[in-house]
Amino acid sequence: MTNKISFFCAVAALFIFVSCNNNSTSTEDAATKDSATAAVNNTADWKIGVQLWTFRLFTQSEAIAKADSAGVRYIEAFLGQPFDKTSKDTFGISMSAAGRQKLKDVLKQHNIQMVAMGVTTPNGKDEWIKTFELAKEFGLSYITSEPIKTQWDLADSLAGVYGIKIAIHDHPKPNAYWHPDSVLAAVKGHNNIGSCADLGHWARNGLNLVDCLKKLEGHIYGVHLKDIVKFDKTDAADTVVGKGVIDFAPAFAELNRQNFKGMFSIEHESNWENNVPDVIETVKFYNDQVAKLKK
Known about the structure:
By secondary structure, the chain is of the alpha/beta class.
């Protein structure tokens, strides 16, 4: 009897030892897997572009040439910018067919793709349809907008029909969308509405960038890239990205973790008459940040 008890005790001890080792291995494997996942580089589908508001003092054709000279291949157009100095055409839903063709020719000439346009707030179904028609004609991925709350359903439905997303932009408070929670309210129940994350404006609003990005995970279609000179000050001046108060590295890392796929639109609201060098410097900063994520 004693021998039998000793035998069963030995078997039990061996089982416990093996189980503990297996659990330890599983835990270590999980930790290794988490570490590997965190280290994955997901920036292959990122684009660096410029919001043409950066060159708002110039015509759209001049602005596109400036983007080209800064080494940028993608743009976000803004509505109302005159196409050139000779025609009456401005970019928007009323732009003539001839003006649209001229714009396509200029984009092709500079090998530049228009990815988005905004910020726009269409008023009613007719304006929304014309806005989507314009976006479709130029092959846009999303429309940067601050939609009227009562038109969320309408905008979402049309976005689904056209296959073009709506990216809600955040301006400084008291703007209706200054906080990610207000954007999430619009996203709820609307599969085609998401966020255009303006990192500079979040900082102006006194918000933590990474916290904001985490709240909007899975709903970020585009990013506005800008830096400011003072945190939590709604009218803080712009400065060259990387030279202000914003710590961009954690934000880039978070977007990488989320497997963000979209465009960073440089929106530099400073040095208006001669800001191409600032845009070039921002492009370099962006490339350096992306390179660090690849290590």
